[in-house]
Design a protein that fits this description.
Layout (H helix, E strand, L loop, with lengths): L3 H18 L2 H16 L6 H22 L14 H14 L3 H7 L2 H7 L8
């Protein structure tokens, strides 16, 4: 029965024998190819990472500006006295008319909706 160490030893012997059968020119080409692969400068991916980072930062800024609540500009405190501002706020509240109030005060709309009158086209 073969043990793993015997198998490993047999493979090492086969490898050494196969290296002896390879021509010196082929070995030289293989060495030079291996050396060129190791010493060849790798393509830098700095610009790719820089571009990806810039796009991510831009998208984060756009998302942040869209999610931020809108702020209304505040009027300076010195331009309007507090009493004038309070009077304007109360007059705005007095002028507000709800839609329900308008419909309750004008029953003609309900009469028209309940009628069988259809718009005529001529």
């Amino acid at each position: 029965m073969n043990t793993p160490s015997d198998f490993d030893h047999d493979l090492r012997q086969l490898h050494a024998a196969s290296l002896g059968a390879v021509s010196p020119q082929t070995l030289a080409r293989l060495r030079s190819a291996r050396h060129a692969a190791v010493t060849r400068p790798r393509r830098g991916r700095t610009f790719a990472w820089l571009g990806a980072t810039a796009c991510t930062a831009l998208l984060a800024m756009v998302a942040a500006t869209q999610l931020m609540p809108t702020q209304t500009p505040m009027a300076p405190a010195r331009s309007q006295p507090a009493t004038v501002a309070a009077m304007q706020a109360s007059s705005d509240a007095d002028n507000f008319v709800s839609t329900a109030d308008v419909l309750d005060q004008n029953p003609d709309l309900y009469v028209w909706l309940g009628s069988d009158a259809s718009p005529t086209t001529e």
